[in-house]
Structure prediction request, 424 residues.
Amino acid sequence: MRIILLLISILFIAGNISAGTARGRAEQVLNEVWDEVSRRHFDKNFKQQYQKLYKKFEPAILKCRDDKKLSREINKLLQAPGQSHIVLMPPVNANFSKAMSSIRRNTTPGKNRRKKNLPDLPADTGITLSQTDNQICVTRVRKNSPAAKAGIKMGDVILAVNNIILYPEKKLYAGWPLIARALLSGQPESKVTIRVLSGKNIKRTVTLTRQINGEKWFKLGILPRLYGDFYATILPGRIGYIQFSVFSTPMLLRFRKAVTGKLRNIKALIIDMRGNIGGMLMYPPWLAAWCCPETVPFGKLVIRGTTLQPKSFPQAECFKGPVAILINNYSYSCAEIFAAGMQDAKKAKLFGTTTSGKCLPSMFFKLPSGFRLQTVMGSIIRVNGKGIEHIGVKPDEKVVLSIKSLRKGQDNVIEAAGSYLLKQ
Prediction:
């Protein structure tokens, strides 16, 4: 009997120590996160303003016994004010977490690269993706790419990548098209298996060998390595078309090179911002300087009491004709700022669907506890006095991407913008 009582006492004490340790860990992480968010936020009274929310979520946070649950509960607190770009990582969605781990493995140089003396450059399958009708669909296939050789076509639907099922009907902090694109990328000559649904409702599984795409890796905060995507061509009627995936120096230098070189004799220009993840805040005015001959103001940027009023400085060799901009709910940050500025200045007509409304300047940190935090430091106010955050930028003409159109070899959003430009 004494032995049994002794064992119960030991277990009780051990349980209390474990609970106390877990509570201490939860309290440490919560304090780190809340202090950092409050210190960096553009609203100097952030901590006081949201003190009631803090008290509401604190009890559940302090009860967490592992980091996964702790992330989930703290993110509930961070999302309660309704502002984007404030998130604690690692992600709490199991499938999303699995996808991010896979992306990191794919993009990190491995032993195979060293054995074969392969360069550490991004490789992909040649597929460009978008999302519509809760499906991840193929919008373009690069000529002579692994995907093209495997018979993947516009309008095909991607169901899974390397046995990671895509759930586009579920909302995530990062959009599923971006996740799927990252899953398809990796090291040269590595393999990737894709489950595809074709236009005839035939499911098939295809294994492709990733091919160097001519881009370079770059790092955005604490996210896995990414690469920028750039595509320029001339459509019928001498309409130039440019699509790029991130606001970075290499992408915008290529934009300048395109409008002053390959596209210098075009009559009109389509700039495709669908799926653009944004980038550095200095770049929307820079882009406008190369596609509009008049100054474009971009509203106000407020950072901790300091107000900036960015605007473009038109370049002599810039494009001077009519412009259409394509947007969707996977256009983020700088893509939204650029579209809003051009729309407010009446220098472009917008086609597509409303942007993500995730448009607050932010920074990435690794906290002492090992958690990673993205947090807000500024606010954007449009020239028309409205915000973009949590609202998005609405198109002048709403056009929903049609899989039926893609399966006929056409992008109906591009077609709508082209028809408008031809009339100009």
About this structure: The radius of gyration is 24 Å. Confidence is low (pLDDT under 50) at residues 1-18. DSSP finds 13 helices and 22 strands in the chain.
